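Design request, tokens follow.
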């Protein structure tokens, strides 16, 4: 079963942000995708609605065992950029059946609509999801199964870039539009 590993954060040094993005999109992504059990990854930047957290990385992994491999433990973290990372969370969700990498890949003509329930209890997040789902057809809903569980429920959908759903007046729900800042990249082992 494929899993979606969602990493969200802010970066506190605008003067270093461009260099950090070059590092993350280049050497860091290559390092991560060379690790066992990583299938693919793509990075995003907030472009609309609730922009409390600017950056999102979505990684597809084969198993929760990915986080216990020696390679992951040796390369974990933001290295020299760590002091500038804020509002960081890592959540793990079961991906829907099929090609999860294709399901979550967003092309340049599209944006990722992310619906989260940050900091809520799982039962409260599920209840709010049920209220929101009627207004958000096409959203794939997933419940956290590991790591921080910062958002116990997460919803994602690809939408045409430049279109934003009307904000919902539902407390406890955060909706963000994210533009891709990198293509979806597959690990070499997964691509063959």
């Amino acid at each position: 079963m494929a899993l979606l590993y969602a990493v969200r954060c802010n970066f506190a040094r605008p003067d270093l942000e461009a260099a950090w993005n070059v590092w993350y999109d280049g050497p860091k992504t290559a390092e991560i995708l060379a690790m066992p059990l990583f299938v693919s990854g793509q990075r995003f930047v907030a472009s609309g609605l609730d922009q409390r957290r600017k950056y999102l990385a979505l990684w597809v992994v084969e198993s929760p065992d990915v986080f216990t491999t020696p390679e992951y433990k040796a390369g974990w973290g933001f290295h020299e950029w760590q002091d500038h990372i804020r509002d960081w969370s890592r959540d793990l969700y079961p991906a829907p059946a099929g090609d999860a990498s294709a399901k979550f890949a967003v092309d340049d003509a599209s944006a990722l609509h992310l619906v989260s329930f940050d900091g809520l209890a799982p039962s409260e997040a599920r209840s709010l999801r049920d209220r929101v789902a009627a207004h958000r057809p096409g959203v794939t809903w997933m419940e956290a199964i590991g790591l921080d569980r910062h958002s116990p429920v997460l919803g994602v959908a690809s939408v045409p870039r430049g279109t934003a759903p009307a904000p919902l007046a539902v407390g406890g729900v955060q909706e963000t539009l994210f533009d891709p800042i990198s293509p979806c990249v597959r690990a070499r082992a997964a691509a063959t």
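Comment from the thread starter after seeing the answer: thanks! Residues 3-191 form a domain with the Alpha-Beta Plaits fold (CATH 3.30.70).
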